[in-house]
Design a protein that fits this description.
- The complex is a heterodimer.
- Chain A is mainly α.
- Chain A contains five helices and four strands, in the order H-H-E-E-E-H-H-E-H.
- In chain A, the strands form two sheets. A two-stranded antiparallel ribbon of chain A has the order 1-4.
- In chain A, a hairpin with a 5-residue loop joins strand 2 and strand 3.
- In chain A, helix 4 runs antiparallel to helix 5.
- The radius of gyration of chain A is 24 Å and the shape is elongated.
- In chain A, 14% of the residues are buried.
- Chain B has one domain: 434 Repressor (Amino-terminal Domain) (Orthogonal Bundle), CATH 1.10.260.
- Classes of the chains: A mainly alpha, B mainly alpha.
Chain lengths: 211, 76
Amino acid sequence: MTETNDIGKLPSIKAISIVISWFYYLGWVAFGLITILFTVLYITDNNVKFINLPISISYEENLDKIPPDFLNSDSKYQVVGVEKIKLHTNNEGGFSFTLIMPVLLISGLLWILYIIRKFIRTVKEGHPFSRDNPRRIRMIGFIVMISSPVIAAVQYIYAYQYIYMLDFPHAEIRVEPDISLMTIFLGLILFVIGHVYELGVKLKEENDLTI
Amino acid sequence: MAININLDLMLVKKNMSLTELSEKVGVTLANLSVLKKNHAKAIRFSTLNGICKALNCQPGDILEYVDETQITKQEN
């Protein structure tokens, strides 16, 4: 027991704890700010920007000339870029999408930070091998694993709402969700670490109850 | 657990307190309490040796095997 208590007093653990706490509180501030900022932007400007949609536009190779200007002045949707287009919208869907994405991302991040804080608290208190910690590691793994597909799914749904509004002659327009395999892989690794940690907890319990 | 610890019985027989035993064996009172309440998962030979020496008894006097299946059958 004394060994685990010593771990809690390590400067590195204290430093990590402080950093995580800062990120956690900053996350809450960002959460509040984003909601307020986007609401204010929507009300004052009636124009919400920065919508990244996974829509790709490709032209046939034999086409002589790709239209130089993608901007369609008649449409309220201005298209910027070719591979990853940005839509500047002023409708409800655009607003909710712009709000959903950061809210989803920050919620996930805050959730992870909250779990890490609890985990570090157990380390500082000198009982890192508590029964809750393997579950916490697995939960972080789960959040990390589903984050990318969830974001891709939201992008996919919204991209399909806008894709029919785009009109490019001789161009093929596709929705290509950007799923990060790295985060899925990282989540799986955390899952495995969680299971290994659970074995460690069982061994520790057995060792503690050996008289 | 199929193995029962009869430490409390032996302490009464030998007229010894748990604190006294912990001092003689060199095991903490908390650990001996865990052992007495049958919550321990394992017991070291050195601890068993110390307890037997302090209580002047055999391991069989402290440890007892109980067939759990027979107990559940009797209960049903």
